[in-house]
Amino acid sequence: MTAPQHMVAAWDLPTRLFKWLLTLLVLLAWVSNKYGSAIPHWHIWNGYAILMLIVFRVLWGFVGGSTARFSAFSIKPSAALAYLRAQWRGMKPHYLGHNPLAAWMVLALLAALAAQAGLGLYSGDEDRIVIEGPLAKTVSDQAVAFAAHWHRLGFKLILTLVTIHIAAALAYDLLGKYGLIGAMVTGRKPADAYQDMQEAAAGSAAHAMLCLLAACAIVFGGIYLLGGNPLQ
């Protein structure tokens, strides 16, 4: 009989909850847009929740668990090229957190979702009857039409990024046995000679709560400061 494989901490609970909640909210954003015309506030509040999660993740990137921190991301182009060359040569370097390509993908997704939700704040339908963002009244009709146009197109970009992200995670698990999918659920990976760190340090639950409260204040306070009322 083989000995059980030693597992090490990879992702703390706040980071995992963020990933799964964001996935659910992106799915619900599509559902509420396509089927929720009778309940327009569903889509609007879904956007608020996405914005709060994005702000939370940015804050968590500075005070969260070691694999969630931006300081652990290898985002130099040279690092991404070196990683690609190693993959091409069959060396397959393992990372406990994000490899250089995954780090770029995370940043791209955060930026795309932030832009999408931000555009939604200024968007509205043609007659402003069915749905209107809380900041639509603060800009011209041309600006609202511009925001609405790019808000519609933006989801296609997000869908493309999400598809690539999921496909890469599945490929890594099926071909390389990296344990990515399991780690997103349990927070643990098989012990290995990882390039970045050998085991993750979890972020503080108190810091996570403070980040969440700060994210709520930033989103709703920001909308008020810009002249909108998110509670209407």
Question: Can you walk me through this structure?
Answer:
This protein has 232 residues and is mainly α. Helices cover 63% and strands 3% of the residues. The longest helix has 36 residues, at 141-176.
Q: Report the mean per-residue pLDDT as an integer.
A: 89
| Low-pLDDT windows of residues | none
CATH superfamily: Transmembrane di-heme cytochromes, Chain C
- Look up the CATH topology: Fumarate Reductase Cytochrome B subunit
Share of residues in strands = under 5%
How many β-strand runs? 2
Q: What is the 3D shape? A: elongated
Taking all Cα atoms into account, the compactness measure Rg is: 20 Å
Question: What is the count of structural domains?
Answer: 1
Helix share bin: 55-70%
Question: Separation of termini?
Answer: 63 Å
What is the count of DSSP helices, taking H or I runs of 4+ residues?
7
Strand order of the largest sheet: 1-2
The description of the largest β-sheet is: 2 strands, antiparallel
CATH class identity: Mainly Alpha
CATH architecture: Up-down Bundle
Q: What's the multimeric state?
A: single chain
Structural class, from secondary structure content? mainly alpha
Q: What series of H and E elements makes up the topology? A: EHHHHHHEH
